[in-house]
Amino acid sequence: MEGKQITEFKPGDDIQGFFLIKDVEVKTTTTNKAYLDMILMDQTGEINAKLWDATVATTQTFEKDSIVKVKGSVSLWQNRNQLKVFKLRAATEEDAVKLEDYVPSAPWKPEKMLEDIMVYVDQINNPDIQKLVRLLIEEKQEKLLYYPAAKSNHHAIRSGLLYHILRMLQTGEAILKVYTELDSDLIYSGIILHDLAKIDEMNANNLGIVSEYSRDGQLLGHLIQGIKDIDRVARENNIDEEVVVVIEHMILSHHYEPEFGSPKKPMFPEAEVLHYIDIIDARIYDMNRVLGQVDEGSFSEPVWVLDRRRLYKSSFNK
């Protein structure tokens, strides 16, 4: 039996280890036999798993967001790895396993990331912009520590939203050294606020796992929710009107195209730069995530979020 992580699984492997149940559903076969259809995950990724011929007791025992010990074998189904489960039991106290150890998480501690972000807030010179940013961070700070940046795709990991914001700030800081005519206050505030309303767009637990999009998230989306938050806080604190409109435009336009939710394209340089910094960070993250599961000298399967491109992992680029 091999104690591999999910991204290391290969067809034919016999597997034994602990995993988190991200989702579980009782289904029936064409012969009316019950089975468990699960998504198992660890810090490296997730895999579909099937426990066939499940008993009534089994179907009532295992719940999502719980740790289980699994014994099974890996096979290929529709060009994806799938785990056929032979044995399954709930983790016990004696196993001494922690939920957090089985959840894909940002590589840096959330408290340190928030601390680093606040360093950038301190560098915002305009008092109204800095006040606006501070108040909005304070409102969402508790959830910000563990929220992902998405339900799936880029930064869909615990503390992924913090990680996305911080990496974008680091990129923005580097760009400001080249394009010195850009306003750093707008670059930093736009980056910090551009996705902050995702905390209200999605319902996520403290493991950073999204169960569903909220009602307002589905009806409005985080761009409109973000603008509403900015407008409310600005009115409550007498923030300069032009500051509010300019920052709201950055939030509204950062998806760039109407089909992605932006009714306006960027209309000043800092808004344009915000869009591309966001794209850079999201796409590099997704590319690295996919290529982490590809052998050197090989191509990935088509990646839907990247326009179904097949990515290549070179053997010389270390």
Give a description of the structure:
- With about 325 residues, the chain is an alpha+beta fold.
- It folds into two domains: about 5-100, OB fold (Dihydrolipoamide Acetyltransferase, E2P), CATH 2.40.50; about 110-290, no CATH class.
- It contains ten helices and nine strands.
- A hairpin with a 5-residue loop joins β1 (about 15-30) and β2 (about 35-40).
- The longest helix is centred in the last third of the chain and has 23 residues, at about 270-290.
Quick structural gist:
With 318 residues, the protein is α+β, with helices and mostly antiparallel strands. 39% of the residues lie in helices and 20% in strands.
Defining key terms:
318 residues; 39% helix; OB fold (Dihydrolipoamide Acetyltransferase, E2P); two-stranded antiparallel sheet; alpha+beta; 2 domains
Written as H for each helix and E for each strand, in order along the chain, the element string is: EEEHEEHHHHHEEHHHHEE
What characteristic shape results from the CA principal axes? Answer: elongated
The order of strands across the largest sheet is 1-2-3-5-4
The radius of gyration is 22 Å
The portion of residues assigned to helices is 25-40%
Task: Report the biggest beta sheet as strand number plus sense, adding barrel if it closes.
Answer: 5 strands, mixed, barrel
**Beta-strand residue percentage:** 15-25%
Low-pLDDT segments? none
- List how many beta strands DSSP finds: 9
Helices and strands in order, then pairings?
Blueprint: E1 14-28, E2 34-42, E3 45-51, H1 56-59, E4 67-77, E5 80-90, H2 110-122, H3 127-144, H4 160-178, H5 184-193, H6 198-201, E6 202-204, E7 210-213, H7 215-219, H8 221-236, H9 241-253, H10 269-291, E8 298-299, E9 312-313
Parallel strand pairs: 3-5
Antiparallel strand pairs: 1-2, 1-4, 2-3, 4-5, 6-7, 8-9
Helix pairs in contact: 2-4, 3-5, 4-5, 4-10, 5-10, 8-9, 9-10
